[in-house]
Amino acid sequence: xxxxxxxxxxxxxxxxxxxxxxxxxxxxxxxxxxxxxxxxxxxxxxxxxxxxxxxxxxxxxxxxxxxxxxxxxxxxxxxxxxxxxxxxxxxxxxxxxxxxxxxxxxxxxxxxxxxxxxxxxxxxxxxxxxxxxxxxxxxxxxxxxxxxxxxxxxxxxxxxxxxxxxxxxxxxxxxxxxxxxxxxxxxxxxxxxxxxxxxxxxxxxxxxxxxxxxxxxxxxxxxxxxxxxxxxxxxxxxxxxxxxxxxxxxxxxxxxxxxxxxxxxxxxxxxxxxxxxxxxxxxxxxxxxxxxx
Length: 293
Known about the structure:
Elements: H1 2-14, H2 22-28, H3 33-44, H4 48-66, H5 71-77, H6 83-94, H7 98-104, E1 127-133, E2 136-146, H8 154-163, H9 165-172, E3 185-190, E4 200-210, E5 220-224, E6 227-237, H10 240-256, E7 259-261, E8 266-272, E9 278-289
Antiparallel strand pairs: 1-6, 2-4, 2-5, 3-4, 3-8, 6-9, 7-9, 8-9
Helix pairs in contact: 1-2, 2-3, 3-10, 4-6, 4-7, 5-6
């Protein structure tokens, strides 16, 4: 998988002064376009679109300083339709406009070319199981919140606090015996291919129930179709351990296993332990068997 990802990165470098076709990158990496974007974002720490922008502006910066092309030629070469658009993007990355940089020989910012390699640590393993789950529902309260990579998400914490104990107990009471995951769960659903800090997502404080049961009309409901789920578990300090597990699923497990991310919500069940700050976490990720793997 890493070899194929690096072949895709080579393809990017060869087409920075033209069109980078994400569908072609996905084909080279033998995955879906959606999964390629998600995998790249998790591995690289930035969206693919941001990496392409920064690499193009890095090369454009070198050409601006070289002075062999006009500024408009450089702008067009790297995909900008006007000198003004190029100047704005150039200044946003480098801190100076292209004309100023050419006149003064300014210090510019460089986005290094990325490649991926496997680091074998051998100090930990990931516990997971694959579940074929029939259709079900998520029932509870929903809010639109920004993504936070590290630490407690203040928007989610405020939302839960605002629900009040009575409402939370009412939602918890809807949990059905034998339904997995059981009890109150945190459900996140993304509406962007990337996972950059601050991207909006739907968050549900809810329970999982059967597809046919009656639910209160005043609660938010998300219908989940039948499908395959990869279920991961770990124990550790909250929220660091579960955030690391989320990261490891996309940076380690997916590249090493014959599955791709399937569009859908991600479900987290957390149970706090008597030891202060410790929690058991169970993460449900929608997956599909990867073709050709």
